[in-house]
C-alpha cells in the first residue's frame, strides 16, 4: 500500500531523513520506533507533503504522491493524527470532527460520526464541549477521531500515547487494534512506547539519525537484545 524509497528531507541545511526505505502492506499495523530527534515525526509529515521530500519517492497504491498537495493526499485515503494532538481548541468536539470530514461525501457524515462515538463514547458525552477544555486523553481520542472522519485507508499515528497515564495508554492501543481489525484500516504508528507498539504491530522499523537501522516482525524486535537494551530496559 505504502512504499518509501530513498527518502531525503531537509530543514534548511539540516538533513533530517537520510535515505529512508520502508513499506506498509494493506491490512498491517507497522510501527516505527526510535529516540527523540531520530526523524520519526519528520517522516510522517513528509508522507503528507509538509515538508517536501528533497529526494526519493513516496508511493501509495502504486501511485507516486511525492509532490502531491496535502489535500489531494488526504483525498486518496491517508490521514494523520499528529504529535501533540493539534486539535482546534476553541471549536467543540463536534466541530473538530466536522473539520476531519471536510474532504469526504457529506452523505457519510452521520455514519462516520457514529463510528467514532462507538470507539470513543467519551467524545459523545463531550460533543458540545470545546476541545481545549478536554483532558489530554480526551484530546488524543479527538485527534484520532478527527483523522478517522476522513475515511482513511491508511492512518498515520504520531506518538498517540505521549503524556498519557498508563491506563489511558492501554486504552489507546486497544482502540488502534480495533481500528485495524474491526474497521479494516491500515495503520503506520510512530511511538516511543516501544513495548506496547511492538506488541501491537505486525512489523516494525527502528530509526536512528534519519535512517532505518533495523526491521522485523514485532515479536522479532521485542526479542532483539539490542532493542531490549535500548528501548525496553530503561534505555533511550
What's the short story on this structure?
38% of the residues lie in helices and 26% in strands. The chain is α/β, with parallel strands linked by helices and 236 residues long. The chain has a domain at 1-77 and 155-160 and 187-236: Rossmann fold (3-Layer(aba) Sandwich), CATH 3.40.50.300.
Question: In terms of quaternary structure, what is this?
Answer: single chain
What's the pLDDT, averaged over the residues? Answer: 92
CATH homology superfamily name of the domain at 1-77 and 155-160 and 187-236: P-loop containing nucleotide triphosphate hydrolases
- Helix tally? 10
Rounded to the nearest angstrom, the radius of gyration is 17 Å
Give helix % range.
25-40%
Sequence stretches where pLDDT stays below 50 over 5 or more residues? none
Which secondary-structure class do the elements indicate?
Answer: alpha/beta
Question: In CATH's first tier, which class of the domain at 1-77 and 155-160 and 187-236 applies?
Answer: Alpha Beta
Proportion of residues in β-strands = 25-35%
Elements, N to C (H/E): EEEHEEHEHHHHEHEHEEHH
CATH architecture of the domain at 1-77 and 155-160 and 187-236: 3-Layer(aba) Sandwich
| DSSP E strands, number | 10
Question: CATH topology of the domain at 1-77 and 155-160 and 187-236, which one?
Answer: Rossmann fold
The outline comes out as globular
Model description:
Helix content is 38%, strand content 26%. It has 236 residues and is α/β, with parallel strands linked by helices. β7 (154-158), α7 (166-181) and β8 (186-190) form a beta-alpha-beta unit. α3 (93-100) packs parallel to α6. The longest helix has 16 residues, at 166-181. It is globular, with a radius of gyration of 17 Å. The mean pLDDT is 92.
Amino acid at each position: 500500500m505504502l512504499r518509501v524509497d530513498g527518502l531525503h528531507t531537509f530543514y534548511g541545511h539540516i538533513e533530517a531523513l537520510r535515505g529512508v526505505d520502508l513499506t506498509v502492506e494493506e491490512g498491517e499495523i507497522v510501527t516505527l520506533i526510535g529516540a527523540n530527534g531520530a526523524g520519526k515525526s519528520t517522516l510522517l509529515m513528509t508522507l503528507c507533503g509538509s515538508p517536501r521530500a528533497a529526494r526519493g519517492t513516496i508511493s501509495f497504491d502504486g501511485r507516486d504522491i511525492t509532490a502531491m498537495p496535502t489535500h489531494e493526499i488526504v483525498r486518496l485515503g491517508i490521514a494523520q493524527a499528529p504529535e501533540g494532538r493539534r486539535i482546534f481548541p476553541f471549536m467543540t468536539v463536534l466541530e473538530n470532527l466536522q473539520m476531519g470530514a471536510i474532504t469526504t461525501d457529506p452523505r457519510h457524515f452521520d455514519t462516520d460520526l457514529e463510528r467514532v462515538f462507538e470507539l470513543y463514547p467519551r467524545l459523545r458525552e463531550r460533543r458540545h464541549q470545546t476541545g481545549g477544555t478536554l483532558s489530554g486523553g480526551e484530546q488524543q481520542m479527538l485527534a484520532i477521531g478527527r483523522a478517522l472522519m476522513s475515511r482513511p485507508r491508511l492512518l498515520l499515528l504520531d506518538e498517540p500515547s505521549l503524556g498519557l497515564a498508563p491506563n489511558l495508554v492501554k486504552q489507546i492501543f486497544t482502540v488502534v487494534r480495533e481500528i485495524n481489525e474491526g474497521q479494516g484500516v491500515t495503520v503506520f504508528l510512530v511511538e516511543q512506547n516501544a513495548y506496547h507498539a511492538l506488541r501491537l504491530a505486525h512489523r516494525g522499523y527502528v530509526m536512528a539519525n534519519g535512517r532505518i537501522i533495523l526491521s522485523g516482525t514485532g515479536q522479532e524486535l521485542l526479542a532483539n537484545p539490542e532493542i531490549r537494551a535500548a528501548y525496553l530496559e530503561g534505555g533511550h
